[in-house]
Specification:
single chain; 57% helix; 222 residues
Length: 222
């Protein structure tokens, strides 16, 4: 009977420091103790999965790339990123880096300023998005994005921070056209305001239900 063999690689820089990579060569049959050790090894390797995904996303790895590398479903990746933001608490909003990361992926196919870093101006530059879509329509697209909802820029205890949004847009590389940068800030404000209104309605609804429940409970005791 051959035992399962593990081959461990040394820790590397960056995100790889948080992972311990091991390849397992399975045999046709295992004893119960061996099988339990295999399960423990698997659980250990996967215990930090969520944190590694969040760290990769913060480091600039797009969700689609995370899915391609890990094979984890996109819906699961969205849930991991969204749950982390919800657990941070109602009072804490996203940082400008987190907003910029969302925008970087959201505007992945947008035209960029061709003169950035003194580059040559193209003969036929792509038109700016500001001439193709309004801030209201763009805000609607943002509002439907799971990544935007996870940022919680407009919760029932938070008001949209225009300065934070502008600072996040300035982090985009390469930068968008100036008119598109303004479009993004305006759309973020609109989407955040819409998010805050939705959460206020939800909070009011929960309060109404709680009040009705309290009235019914006191009535049943009298």
């Amino acid at each position: 009977m051959r035992f399962a063999q593990y081959r461990h690689q040394p820790r590397l820089l960056g995100l790889q420091r948080s992972l311990l990579s091991c390849s397992i060569c399975y045999v046709d049959q295992l004893t119960r103790d061996q099988a339990e050790r295999e399960l423990v090894a698997w659980a250990t390797a996967n215990a930090c999965r969520d944190e590694v995904i969040r760290a990769a996303y913060r480091a600039g790895v797009a969700k689609n790339r995370i899915h391609t590398i890990t094979g984890i479903a996109r819906t699961t990746i969205d849930r991991i990123l969204e749950e982390h933001t919800v657990r941070r608490g109602f009072m804490q909003m996203a940082t400008r880096e987190e907003v910029a990361q969302f925008l970087q992926e959201f505007t992945r196919d947008w035209p960029r300023d061709p003169t950035w870093q003194g580059g040559p101006f193209p003969f036929r530059p792509r038109p700016a998005m500001a001439y193709q879509i309004s801030a209201e329509d763009l805000a609607g697209q943002m509002f439907e994005a799971v990544g935007f909802r996870a940022l919680r820029l407009g919760s029932w205890l938070n008001t949209p921070d225009g300065e934070l949004m502008a600072a996040a847009v300035e982090l985009l590389t390469p930068p968008p056209y100036e008119v598109d940068a303004k479009l993004l800030v305006d759309a973020l404000k609109i989407a955040a305001t819409r998010q805050r209104s939705a959460e206020l309605e939800k909070a009011v609804g929960i309060g109404v239900v709680a009040t009705i429940g309290a009235v019914l409970l006191s009535g049943s005791r009298s």
